[in-house]
Specification:
6 helices
Length: 193
């Protein structure tokens, strides 16, 4: 079953996507949003905004970043409901799952979001990050999966954004995690996960 969401761009119709990435403090949720927004605006030539919020706990509390990507100017940087929700924790899923438009897409890490709706797309980001011997790259695995399931930015743009957003010592592992996430998403169409 092919779960890839295509992007239709009709002549004269603006493209706008509202994406929320949510998880717990310390999972790299905010840097994932920064990288996604930078990939769109700096390297793919689109318009993008990125906002963020997190709970009072620096680590462990629910955090989210909202990214709007458009091919026209964005008038307001905040979103009420999103088109796509990416969740890396149960707490974040419980808090933000209701804030998605009807027919929107929810991508979850099933090891971390155990209780979720049946129509969520499972991406084993944390297990993949552990295979890569760095649990902190689960956020990049999810960005890779997102780029294949909901291709609003190119893989090349994400690689460039990573290269210019993280410490040099983490660039290679983050890009490897990005590619692993892309492969995970592509395997959904073949039935392999």
């Amino acid at each position: 079953m092919d779960r890839t969401v295509g992007i239709a761009r009709a002549e004269g119709v603006a493209m706008m996507h509202k994406i929320r990435i949510a998880g717990s403090g310390g999972q790299g949720i905010l840097i994932a949003g920064v990288i996604l927004g930078k990939a769109a605006s700096v390297y793919d030539g689109l318009w993008a905004t990125q906002t963020q919020s997190y709970g009072p706990e620096a680590r462990g509390g629910a955090s989210k970043t909202d990214v709007i990507i458009s091919d026209t100017e964005i008038n307001y940087p905040f979103i009420g409901t999103c088109d796509i929700l990416v969740c890396l924790s149960q707490l974040a899923y419980t808090k933000y799952a209701g804030g998605i438009v009807p027919g929107g897409t929810r991508i979850v890490d099933p090891d971390l979001v155990v209780h979720h709706a049946d129509d969520c797309i499972p991406i084993n980001a944390s297990a993949t990050a552990i295979e890569l011997e760095n649990p902190l790259v689960a956020n990049m695995v999810m960005l890779g999966a997102l780029s294949r399931l909901y291709p609003v930015v190119s893989g090349r743009a994400l690689e460039e954004a990573i290269s210019h957003s993280v410490s040099r010592r983490f660039v290679d592992i983050d890009i490897e995690a990005l590619h692993r996430g892309m492969a995970l998403a592509e395997s959904l169409g073949t039935g392999e996960v």
